Amino acid sequence: MPKEIFRGFKLCKDEVVNLDVNRLLLGIAREANTRGGLGKIQGKIFFEIDGYNDDERKPWEIPEVRKYFKSLDEIAPFFLYFIANEVLGESVRTYLSMFIDPDFFATFNPGPEMKQEIDVFIKNRIHAVADYCEKINSSEKAGVDPRETIFQVFRCMGHDTKREDIFKDKV
Q: Taking a C-beta distance cutoff of 8 angstroms, is the pair 50, 13 a contact?
C-alpha cells in the first residue's frame, strides 16, 4: 500500500485578518495539478494557523480566525473534501469548531439544539462535497466518491463508524 502524502498550508495572521483565502485555495489547486488532479488530493490537505502562537485561546475562540474560515466556507463549502482524513483529525475538528459548538468534541453527547446545529451544518457540507465530487468526476473522470469524505468526517468527529456503514447507502 502506498504511503499517503499530505500537504500542509500555514495560514499567516495577515491572511487571516484580511480574510485572504486566495493563497490557500491557489495552493490547493497547485497541489492538485502537481498530483494529477483534484481526485488525488481528497483528504490529503491540512492547515496550521500561525501568528497566534502566544494567544491562549483556541483558534475558534479568536473572532478573526472564525471570520476567516466563514469566508473560506462561503467560497469553498466543500473544503472538507480536502481535509477530511482520520490521520488529520485535529485539523478537521479545528475546522468544524469554527462552525459547530466545540463543546460537542468534548462531550460527544450534544443536546437537542446542538445536535440540530451539527446535523444542518454537516448535511449542507456533505451535499457540497457530493456536488464537488460530481464535478471532479465529470471533468477528471476520477471516480471520486463523496462517501469517503463523509466517512472520514464522522471518524474525525469521534464516531465509531465503519466504512461499510457509509458505503452501503447512496448519498
A: yes
Cβ pair 91, 6 in contact under 8 A: no
Q: What predicted TM-score, i.e. pTM, was given to this entire model?
A: 0.86
Q: What share of the chain is helix, strand, coil (3-state, %, to 5)?
A: 60, 5, 35
**Cell numbers that stand for 66 in this block:** 472564525
Predicted confidence at residue 159, as pLDDT, reads 74
Indicate the length of the chain as a whole number: 171
Strand partners, 45: 7
Round the average pLDDT of the chain to a whole number and report it. 87
Within 8 A by CB and 6+ apart from 4, the residues are: 44, 85, 87
143: exposed, middle or buried (Cβ count in 10 Å: 0-12, 13-18, 19+): exposed
Question: Is 31:82 a contact under the CB 8 Å cutoff?
Answer: no
